[in-house]
Amino acid sequence: xxxxxxxxxxxxxxxxxxxxxxxxxxxxxxxxxxxxxxxxxxxxxxxxxxxxxxxxxxxxxxxxxxxxxxxxxxxxxxxxxxxxxxxxxxxxxxxxxxxxxxxxxxxxxxxxxxxxxxxxxxxxxxxxxxxxxxxxxxxxxxxxxxxxxxxxxxxxxxxxxxxxxxxxxxxxxxxxxxxxxxxxxxxxxxxxxxxxxxxxxxxxxxxxxxxxxxxxxxxxxxxxxxxxxxxxxxxxxxxxxxxxxxxxxxxxxxxxxxxxxxxxxxxxxxxxxxxxxxxxxxxxxxxxxxxxxxxxxxxxxx
Length: 302
Hints:
The protein contains seven helices and eleven strands. It is of the alpha+beta class.
């Protein structure tokens, strides 16, 4: 069987499925000279999950993200975020909309030096906030209170919910949010979890992926494909409002050319589509490539 790069996913269909861990990811966008641009970071090659892959900033929900202090130090998340809290795995602990949104902001600050606040906050101030959080984990609420700011959770627009396939041992229930770049901020990788960063049009990132210059996980690829169809931030936000927030858990199919089937594919147990575009990612040359199933294909559930 063809194998993926060790920097991407590795599958064992015979293992007992692990319970996905709650996570949040942020797709930060801005309007550039040639259209919509996204902020991308390169994960450290030493990372145990997606090491060396190009991703959007994000990570696991931390217990501190559910602290009561956030009732005062954060605005209320958008109503649609509630849909992202619906249980997926019965063994997973419940999570609140606020904890998911706080985790998105915290991870964005840690990995990308970007944070949405309820009043303007420049790059130098953001860097000082990030450094304080790095030195004292869990201190973000008190640090924000001291500078008279709150997390602007209402600026995070729910985008999608991707869950790592059951065949992968390291699983995450990742909620994706769309965010316009806050005024006065630029973004930069943290030189620890992320080792490189840049702004780029979605189509240009996809071109680099097609040439084999970078590695992308399927949720990143699909998000780029969708955002490549819009020209500005207003259109991106409108597109976000159209997205289904139902869980997208690809199913790994090992027969023939291995592929990941998405909901709506003949080889997936869920018959309805939950995301636009081709319904599978086929393993070709060590990369999962977005493709439609062949005509007349039969269902092949795993």
